[in-house]
Amino acid sequence: MAEIARRTTSIGNRVMFLIHRREVLNQAVDTFKAQGVDQSRLDAGMVQTLTRKVDRLPEPKLILVDEAHHALAKSYQRILNKFPNAHVLLFTATPIRTGRRQMDEVADDIIVGQSISDLTKQGFLAPFDYYSIDDIDADKLKRSSTGDYTNASMDEAVSRKIYGHIISNYQRLADGKQAVVYTYSVESAKRIAKAFNKANISAVEVDGSTEDNIRDHYVKQFRDKKIRILVNVNLFTEGVDLPDVDCVIMARPTQSLALYLQFSMRCLNPREGKQAIIIDHVANWKTFGLPDSDRDWKNAIISKDKNSKRKKNDEPTFAITQCDYCFAVVPSSKVKDGKCPMCGKPIKVHAAVEQTDDQLKLINDRKRLINDILNDEVMQNVANKSVKELHTMKELQAYAKLHKYKRGWVYYQAKMKGLIKRK
Ligand SMILES: [Zn+2]
What we know:
By secondary structure, this protein is an alpha/beta fold. The chain folds into 3 domains: 2-92, Rossmann fold; 117-318, P-loop containing nucleotide triphosphate hydrolases (Rossmann fold, 3-Layer(aba) Sandwich); 359-416, no CATH class. It has 16 helices and 12 strands. The chain has helices spanning 2-10, 22-34, 47-52, 74-82, 116-121, 151-157, 162-174, 186-198, 212-223, 257-265, 284-288, 297-300, 359-375, 377-382, 393-402, 407-416, and strands spanning 15-19, 42-46, 62-65, 87-90, 128-132, 179-183, 203-206, 229-233, 247-251, 276-280, 320-322, 329-331. The site of zinc ion has 8 residues, from loops.
C-alpha cells in the first residue's frame, strides 16, 4: 500500500488513505513516511474523522482503503461517493461479509493475494497446530439480522464445562505460552480469567467497557509477559499490535469468516522456531475449515440473490479430520497410515484402504471385531455414534474397543465429560 502511495504522490497526485481503527493509524502513517510517501499529498485518517469533514477534503486521484470489508458501511460510502473520479483500491485479508451483500457492490474485481499457506511457507506467518474441544451445542445457536449469532443464543449454546476445559487444555497443549482468549460475553470473560488465576496462571479480562488507560496497562503487561492470558470480548480483532501471542483460545462461536480468521491469525506473527497453538472450544472449524484452508475469494465477493436462500450443499466442504484422541484437527492429506500426525494414535479418515502385507491380519482383526460387535449390545449401540453422543463409562469403553483406542483415551474422555472426578 505504501509503495503504491509513494509512486502516486511522486508524480504529483494526491492520495487518500482510510483506516478503521485509531490504534493502527500512527503505525501506518509512520510506514508511509518511511517508504517515502510525499506527506504533502497524503490525507490519511480514520474513516469516522474523514467522513465528518468530507466536504473540505481535497480531491484525491487515488483512495486506499484498509480493512475494506467494512467499505459498504455508510461512513465509507460517503467518502467514496464524494470522489467518483478517484481510483479506489480496497485492501482486506477477508473479502467476505456475513449476510447477502458482498464486496461487488463497491468493487469491480478482485485481485487475490497470496494464501495463508503460501505466506506460512515463506516465513511471513508462523505455522500452527489446531485443536478442537467441542463445548457447544450448535443447534441452539440463532442468527441475528446482522448474520452473526445472538448473544442470548451463544450463552445458551456454550456448555458450562467450557471453563474447566479451557484451563485443562491450555495446560495440556500450550502450558506457559502467551495466550489470547476470545469469548462471547463479559460475564464469560470474567469467569475464564478467574479460572485461570485460580490455577495460578496470570490472566486479565478486557472488554468494551474497560477504560482505555487500564486496557493499555494490561496490554503492556501482557507484552512484557507479566500477564500470561488476555481474555477479551470483541476487542483485539483488527489493528491492535500484539506481538508474541503464541496461543489463541476460541470460546466465541461465529458465522463471520472475517472474525474467525482474525481470531486465528492473532497468534501467527512469525518468530524463529515458533509453532502457534489454536484451541477451538466452539467448533468454528466445522463452519470454516482450518485458517489456511483454500477459499474461493472470487466467488465470495458476489452478492447473493435476494430471493435465493443459500443451499446447504453450497457450503464449502473441507477435507479435514479430527483425532478423537488428542483432539487435533488436521487436513486429511496429512494423515499417513491411518495415524494422527500429532499424537500417532489411530485416526478415522474416509479414504481408500491401504494395501499392505498386513492385510490378512487386518481382515482377521476385523472379523474378530465384527464378532465382538454382534455379541455386545453396548458396542452395537455405539457403532454409529460420535464421541459427543457417548454418555457412560460403558459406552466409552465400547467405543474405545471399536476404534482400538487405549485406556488412557477412555480416562481422558470420562474426565472431560465429568464421569470421573478431576484430581
Ligand atoms: Zn491425535
